[in-house]
Specification:
The complex is a heterodimer. By secondary structure, chain A is mostly beta strands. Chain A is built from no helices and 11 strands. The mean pLDDT of chain A is about 90. By secondary structure, chain B is mainly beta. Helices cover about 5% and strands about 50% of the residues of chain B. Chain B is built from 1 helix and 11 strands, in the order βββββββββαββ. Classes of the chains: A mainly beta, B mainly beta. Chains A and B meet through β4, β5, β9 and β10 of A and β4, β5, β9, α1 and β10 of B.
Chain lengths: ~110, ~110
């Protein structure tokens, strides 16, 4: 079953923060985050494994709450380059394929 | 440089015609996947393969076929049975332990029915 992402869209000014959520009704083994620019391939951001770890990548970080089957992506001090659609991909018990959410469209304005 | 190549970038199909989308990777990845993306939508799994000469249906396999005769190649055929094939098609590959390495995506093929 497809994970649910929220919000569906968000508009920010440069320097503002945003949180994107990904929620699943199934137990998760890992959660992956990707960013896609219009008409391009999704680009890998990070992976979180079950265990509730938090990861960071410059000003973009994420957390994974295994008990709640939820993951959140945090974008701080947003830059124009952060604009795009963010997807979470979830993996069941080492199923080795990802099921993607519907995406969150992020627009950062000057 | 290693990567995953999809061709063509744009493809036009006439009604009743079969078309084949190419996907080649030189990353020595074991697993390969095909996803379909409709405007403003997420990615839906069509087929995937974790080993040569073996593949499994995804959520929306009807009207599509694949083959995996070589580790590097995973072509997707959109048959005339697929009634609404206009979409953006993404191919991806991964190592066996996808939870550690994630996917590498190709640049996509945009298919339009004319």
């Amino acid at each position: 079953q497809q994970p649910v992402q929220s919000p569906q869209a968000v508009i920010l000014r440069e320097g503002e923060d945003a949180v994107i959520n990904c929620s699943s009704s199934k137990a998760l083994y890992s959660v992956h985050w990707y960013r896609q620019k219009h008409g391009e391939a999704p680009v890998f951001l990070m992976i979180l494994l079950k265990g509730g770890e938090q990861k960071g990548h410059e000003k973009i970080s994420a957390s994974f709450n295994e008990k709640k089957q939820q993951s959140s992506l945090y974008l701080t001090a947003s830059q124009l380059s952060y604009s795009g659609t963010y997807f979470c991909g979830t993996e069941g018990d080492a199923g080795n394929m990802l099921t993607f959410g519907g995406g969150t469209r992020l627009m950062v304005k000057p | 440089d290693g990567g995953i190549t999809q061709s063509p970038k744009y493809l036009f199909r006439k009604e009743g015609q079969n078309v084949t989308l190419s996907c080649e990777q030189n990353l020595n990845h074991d697993a390969m996947y095909w996803y379909r993306q409709d405007p403003g939508q997420g990615l839906r799994l069509i087929y995937y393969s974790q080993i040569v000469n073996d593949f499994q249906k995804g959520d929306i396999a009807e009207g599509y076929s694949v083959s995996r005769e070589k580790k590097e190649s995973f072509p997707l055929t959109v048959t005339s049975a697929q009634k609404n094939p206009t979409a953006f098609y993404l191919c991806a590959s991964s190592r066996k332990q996808v939870q550690n390495y994630g996917y590498t995506f190709g640049s996509g093929t945009r298919l339009t029915v004319v």
